[in-house]
């Protein structure tokens, strides 16, 4: 399923203007079934040929549909859709990376260590990886292809290459991931306290309100049933000299970036999990590039 992302720029505004019309939306719906020529579209829309052709041209101009010449009774122009979904990104774009900033996008299946208890599982783009509700699946050779992992209790730990230049000091570190709670199938009222540790130091707990399901995630493949978990929320843990923040809110002011000792190790450990003494032990789902609503794994950004 091919998606087009639009956000805050002039090109995206043109796309939004193009689809802000009931006839053009209907054209896209019709073309989602199969390609049509303008005559066929005009007949189905009960519109004049000229009006239909104008609407087709506006959708072509923003590359939502394409037109090609195909043999028929002579040669005719046939219109086809280019995308299955149009996604409006309302979240803040990633900061532009400069020579004093280092960024890594870690696949969710590329964890270094884990402790897993059912219900649990690894899911690839096209099928499960190993057996569902079997912690042994988390040691499958194919685990690196995971696009969704979930567990009722436990953790996964990632080790990122330390790209900090020798002699440099880190000003801030940010970890971003798409997460939610983990309930059987899904449950909208299912809080879970999800904690992140960096180099073994706790840097903040976020209480997920829900195991989101019932409505398909933008990237979630069609074979994955909608009564299962579908998407999460994009959460950002940031640690600076002032303390630890989640989505810009100061969570811990007794831990700062110096205590993480990022410059002293060949790797940076990021652990995500449920604490033994958590108030809400609702598990967690972690989404990869091809599941959920955000096309990413675990993002690590360092500012020096």
Written description of the protein model:
It contains 4 helices and 17 strands. The radius of gyration is 23 Å and the shape is elongated. The relative contact order is 0.17. It folds into 2 domains: 3-87, Arc Repressor Mutant, subunit A (Orthogonal Bundle), CATH 1.10.10.10; 93-303, Galactose-binding domain-like (Jelly Rolls), CATH 2.60.120.260. The chain has 304 residues and is mainly β. Helix content is 13%, strand content 38%. Strands 5, 6, 7, 8, 9, 10, 11, 12, 13, 14, 15, 16 and 17 form a 13-stranded antiparallel beta sheet that branches. Strand 6 and strand 7 (128-129) form a beta hairpin. The two termini are 39 Å apart. The model has no long low-confidence stretch (mean pLDDT 91). Keywords: DNA-binding.
Offer a quick outline of the entry.
The protein has helices at 10-19, 22-31, 38-45, 49-61; strands at 3-6, 65-72, 74-81, 85-88, 101-106, 113-123, 128-129, 148-161, 172-180, 192-198, 201-208, 233-240, 243-246, 249-252, 267-273, 284-287, 298-303. The protein has 304 residues and is mainly beta. It is elongated and about 70 Å long.
């Amino acid at each position: 399923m091919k998606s087009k992302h639009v956000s805050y720029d002039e090109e995206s505004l043109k796309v939004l203007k193009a689809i802000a019309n009931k006839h053009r939306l209907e054209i896209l719906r019709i073309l989602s079934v199969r390609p049509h020529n303008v005559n066929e579209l005009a007949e189905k829309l009960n519109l004049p040929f000229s009006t239909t052709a104008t609407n087709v041209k506006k959708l072509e101009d923003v590359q939502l549909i394409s037109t090609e010449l195909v043999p028929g009774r002579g040669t005719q122009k046939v219109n086809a859709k280019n995308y299955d979904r149009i996604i409006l990104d309302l979240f803040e774009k990633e900061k532009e990376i400069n020579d004093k900033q280092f960024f890594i996008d870690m696949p969710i299946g590329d964890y270094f260590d884990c402790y897993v208890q059912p219900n649990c599982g690894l899911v690839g783009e096209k099928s499960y990886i190993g057996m569902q509700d079997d912690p042994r699946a988390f040691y499958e050779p194919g685990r690196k292809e995971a696009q969704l992992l979930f567990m009722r209790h436990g953790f996964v730990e990632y080790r990122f290459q330390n790209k900090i230049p020798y002699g440099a000091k880190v000003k801030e570190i940010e970890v971003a991931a798409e997460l939610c709670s983990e309930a059987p199938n899904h449950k909208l009222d299912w809080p879970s306290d999800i904690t992140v540790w960096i180099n073994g130091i706790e840097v903040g707990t976020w209480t997920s309100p829900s195991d989101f399901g019932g409505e398909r995630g933008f990237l979630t493949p069609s074979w994955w049933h909608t009564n299962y978990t579908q998407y999460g929320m994009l959460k950002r843990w940031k640690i600076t000299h002032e303390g630890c923040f989640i989505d810009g809110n100061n969570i811990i002011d007794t831990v700062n970036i110096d205590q993480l000792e990022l410059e002293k190790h060949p790797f940076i450990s990021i652990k995500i999990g449920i604490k033994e003494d958590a108030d809400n032990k609702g598990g967690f789902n972690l989404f990869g590039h091809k599941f959920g609503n955000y096309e990413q794994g675990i993002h690590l950004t360092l500012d020096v």
